[in-house]
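Record type: monomer structure entry
Structure origin: computed from sequence
Chain ID: A
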Amino acid sequence: MKAFLKRYLKVIDVYIIKKYLGTFLFTLSIFSVIMVVFDISEHLDNFLKKQSTLHDIALQYYAGFIPFYLNYLSPLINFLAVILFTAKMANQTEVVPILTSKASFSRFLRPYFITATLIFIVSFFANVYLIPFTNRLKVDFENSHFSDSDPTKNEVHMQLDKQTYVYVKSFDNTSKTGYLFIMEKFNGDDLIQKLVATNITYDSVKRIWKMRTYSDRHINGLKETMVWHGNVKDTTLDMRPEDFEVRDNQYSAMSMSVLNKNIEKAQLRGTGELTDMLFEKYHRFVYPLSTYVLTLIGVALSSRKVRGGIGLPLGLGIILCFTYILVERFALVFSIKGGAPPLFSVFMPNVLFGAFGYYLLVKAPK
């Protein structure tokens, strides 16, 4: 292994990799401290109001908060780190001797992309395996301590299987009760059964639904039968109270296996949440690729020596960071509200910034 590294990694490679990783880890730690300080000042009243213990705050909320935001911001932190140490190298006239020693610009980029690959691997496995687990800790804490939203979800349409459709006028997650429940079964295009209940309640012990005061109408060609019941009926349905939960952050806390199962269920039911889940799934795999894109932009932007030192490259880097976040958020809205395919929306920021990075690479000093 040592012989392999000695053969393919030269002194300048090791020098740049050490600077890269050192600056990245230092910037990562600075961002961690800043985020925690600002978050504590924002949520201190919630902690005191709910009488949260230090154990729950540290090992549940911040154990999920810190990994989530560090992973989310890692490409941008990486981008700033690249600009910081590369602009400093250029300002100290360290880049010019490298490029004038018969080393091409692509050769100069090699240690950058080796380090970016290490960051990509960590970010990828964190995105797919670690972050959903830590997000569950954070989401559970937020929903119990920060959420003041209405627990009622209104006008819910859902498809349970190829033949069965249900409608609930309103569902109260506190009491696990839905009001004005309608279930329709079809044979092709023909309605064969329609069941209407005033309310339906989930029994979490027996894992069944209890319907009260319901009518059951059966249709067989021209023959119809209608039965009214004033008592309680137990029934098993392929739906759970979780299907009615009003949460914006629930998909980020699902493991890949759970997320895939919910995607299959949403494809069948047509609940309108399929796009959100597909975007979350694709985002976990595609977002780490931004490490390469932003590294390329950072090197091309800061490898030229300019008057004023590192101030100008750093300022441009901060602007580009906010622009990338804006485009990344716009891609989500474009997918959910604009009807764009989730896979296209997920790739859009990296494609746009990748093209911009290629332009900067062409214009960079060689």
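Annotation 1: The mean pLDDT is 83.
Annotation 2: The CA atoms of residues 135 and 217 lie 45 Å apart.
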